[in-house]
Amino acid sequence: MSSYSEIAQRIVKILVSPDAVFGFWNGVMSVPKDIGYLAYGFIDTDSRSVRENERIRMMTAIRYGILKNHNFIKTLEIVFEAFNQYVPKERQNSIYSKALFSVAGRATANTLISGRIAQNIAQKSSLLIGIRGSIIGNALLAGGMAERCIYTSRRLQSDVPEVYSALRPHDYDFLYFLLEPALQPFVEALHVRWTNGTLAFNQILDAVDNEFKKR
After folding, report:
1. What whole-number distance in Å separates Cα of residue 3 and Cα of residue 204?
2. Which pTM was predicted?
């Protein structure tokens, strides 16, 4: 788990420049990571039955178009909404006006600002998938990438059940590992709130304010 200041720094970086996170996506398609998850999945016999069921759910989700761009956007928006519900409206306006001043000046609803951020990031993630080729669906069905997808979903369920429960009904939890570079600091902040309480979460928000003041 990162420190509160590190979480805040990454939140600000993503809010100020969603395009900046694109550089982190190189790790998403990391072959060494996939091999590591494949090896771990082989020896993890205790969860093999559960993972087989998850693989079937993944196959069904891919068949019905889970990799379409609007599903990435919706996944991002759900996580942003989960984060924003614990941020007071006044502080939301302050944070997002600094992040996207030209938009915030016209927007009357914070959801519009979150949607713009989500769309910017989702466009980059879907572009990466296009660059990697149309075989990504097949890659998700076999090998280490499938294991990584499933283990990341299970970790999300353990660390932030609230976010997992919001994503799971539409199988968006399978998209989380592809979007984790953008969403992880928000999810970590929610994990802090879940484990350490509102006071700790507010300390992260204070750190976010301080990071904006440095700019």
Report:
1. 9
2. 0.80
